[in-house]
Automatic annotation (TrEMBL):
It comes from Enterobacillus tribolii. Keywords: Hydrolase, Magnesium. The keyword Hydrolase applies. Monomer. This is Phosphatase NudJ. One of its GO terms (molecular function) is ribonucleoside triphosphate phosphatase activity. Its cofactor is Mg(2+).
Amino acid sequence: MLKPHVTVACVVQSQGKFLTVEETINGKATWNQPAGHLEADETLIEAAVRELWEETGIDAAPQSLLQMYQWVAPDATPFLRFTFAIDLPDMPPTQPHDSDIDRCLWLSAGEIITSDRLRSPLVRESILRYQRPERYPLEILSAFNWRPPAR
């Protein structure tokens, strides 16, 4: 039975630059969008807001859905990734609250797309997807009869 890891990611753009988090994986500095796993007591949008704050210190909400990706990592772990867009007028200061994040960087699309430091190919793909004009309204994601499970 397939049980994918459900994750959220935020493509955050400001003044032509994209917010990237740097984390060390297996001794190597890698780049990712602010991203993480959906927790049992939250909606997808709540998870995106939480992950953005934890990894960057930025308090902002998704403005649209970019894409949903079904992907299997090289170690055979299946993922279902919901990728959101956030456009900010200014680049706010960053302060990661998650000890796994080494630092935050504002990078150009080209720097990300051509990098060999990406945590997964979805980082590049999400930037390429952002560059297309299509966006999906957040209302497409419904928390139907939402009652978070008791802890």
